[in-house]
Amino acid sequence: MEEASKQASFFKMRKYSNIAFCMVVISAVVIIISCVSFNILTGAVSNDSSLKEIEINSGSSYLTIASLLKENNLIKSETFYKIYIKLFKPGTLEACTYNLSENMGIKKIVNVLKQGCSSNPDVITITFNEGWHMRKIASVIASNTNNSEEDIFSILKDETFLDEMIDKYWFLTDEVKNDEIYYSLEGYLFPDTYEFINKDVSVRDIFITMLDEMENKLESLKLTIKNSDYTVHELLTLASIVESEAGNSDDRAGVAGVFYNRLENGYNLGSDVTTYYAIKVDVYSRDLTTAEINDVNAYNTRSDSMIGKLPVGPICNPGLESIEAVLNPTDHNYYYFVADKYGDTYFNTSYSGHLSTVASLKDQGLWYEYES
Predict the structure, then answer these.
(1) Which of 6, 78, 82, 164 is most exposed, with minimal Cβ within 10 Å?
(2) Alpha carbon distances (Å) from 198 to 135, 211, 219
(3) 262 in a domain, yes or no?
(4) How many CB atoms lie within 10 A of CB 234?
(5) Buried b (16+ CB within 10 A) or exposed e, 138-176
(6) Residue of 229, 221, 223, 233 whose CA lies nearest to 325
(7) Neighbours of 181 (CB within 10 A)
(8) Which string of b and e fits 306-316 if b means at least 16 CB within 10 Å?
């Protein structure tokens, strides 16, 4: 009897032990699902960085504006927004007009709201256009903030900063630290309109804001990039050339197709814009000399030494259309293209055909002429 009682007690304890284990597993699964759901539903609604003016009336609180934020498509879930507020207790909400965007996510939105109106009078807005190279970006930052151009160029050479950024962003690699590259983050600073707290904003914060936006834009393209035969650095390099060559064209994918054909079939890219960049002269500000065209340089793709090669790095900061174009180029058999002064693009399979098109455009008054 005593032995039977011991066995019964053993099985009873084992039963409770199994139940406890199952409860632990279930609890762990629930916690994981809850955390994942929280991160997703408090994240950005979309990649759209367009600012929306949101007026917060007197007497409003962080909790009462949940529906207003949802109506403006700034948050994914009112419920999870309220959970975030109750968890982090941001305090009193100041009545004011705030500039918010769909790509912020709840954390950034709350951080902006916490600043209140006191900082708004000093907020600065800077627009960086597609196709701008680093020299232009440095000039614009220096004109709009309390930073000098030397501050910009200095941080681009800062190994500690670059290593930190490489660790932070999946699309940045040691390729940007190549000694032959003029400006390390050229091609990686997404062109857009940005707001900064005031003129004292640091170059570091400006660059991180632009890199954050590049990450937002590349996230949906990540699988396509991974499946490409080219690295992210090479793709952005090619996208920068497409941006410079076809920024006014509605056929960027066709232009990208030409460059792929040339890369893969024994041609150099033959792109004048890379030669201008190599000599640090603005594109089409003047004619190129024969010596400049033939100069052996890690950027100059007119040189015969660059057959089948891309430049060492991007030559400008491309927009999303040019990035998408190099990821989804048009499949054709063209090796030459030229654009008229209105941005219309003409393709040819042969050099003789290309020259004929150029002559025709000149006869029709459609050829770009340099300003004197």
Answers:
(1) 6
(2) 22, 19, 29
(3) yes
(4) 18
(5) bebbbebbebeeebbbebbeeeebbeebbeebebbeebb
(6) 221
(7) 20
(8) beeebbbbbbb
Tens of pLDDT, residue by residue over 205-226, are 999 999 999 999 999 999 999 9
Where does a domain end: 70, 105, 121? Answer: 121
Q: What are phi and psi of 281, to 5 degrees?
A: -120, 140
- One-letter amino acid of 245: E
The span from the CA of 255 to the CA of 343, in Å, is 12
Structural domain span for residue 348: 222-363
Q: How confident is the model at residue 25 (pLDDT cuts 50, 70, 90)?
A: low
Tell how strand 193-196 and strand 124-127 pair up: antiparallel
Beta-sheet pairing, 124-127 with 336-339: unpaired
Structure token pair of residue 197: 């707290």
- The distance of Cα 209 from the centroid of its chain, to the nearest Å, equals 10
CA distance 120 to 112: 10
Beta carbons within 8 Å of 293's beta carbon, 6+ residues apart:
275, 300, 302, 303
pTM of the model: 0.69
